[in-house]
Structure of HECT-type E3 ubiquitin transferase:
Amino acid sequence: RKEYVDLYVNYKFNKSVQKPFEDFMQGFLRGCPARNWKMFFPEELQILLQGHTTFDWHLLEKNVIYGQYTKLDQTIRNFWTVFYKLPEEKKKMFLAFLSGSDRISGYGLECFRFWIADPQVENPDESLPHANTCHLILFLPR
């Protein structure tokens, strides 16, 4: 029985996917040659490819650039008060809304900067916050 189970598991996890995996690996290595990846430790490579998944949110706040706002404006203080009350998953959803991804590139939050700008609409009560993901700008009506 043990031999049967071992052979079955080996077939399911190795032999049955061997050809598709080899095709994938050939294509992957054509675009990303292995010699370029050997300089990284596995953990560094994972962060480089997947991005950071844990964050220091206070560092995020520290790196914000304000357009038509100062960090002492009531709208900005209200924004950060609400932001810090959000659960971790919602904060990541905000990051995805802002940047298109719930992760930060391999450089980390130290280098991640975004803008909070006033869209300067005629009636801010009729305008919703929106983001420009290409330029990392959050348009936050007063």
About this structure: The mean pLDDT is 87. Residues 57-139 form a domain with the Hect, E3 ligase catalytic fold fold (CATH 3.30.2410.10). The first helix runs from residue 2 to 13. The beta strands are 65-67, 115-117, 130-132, 137-139.
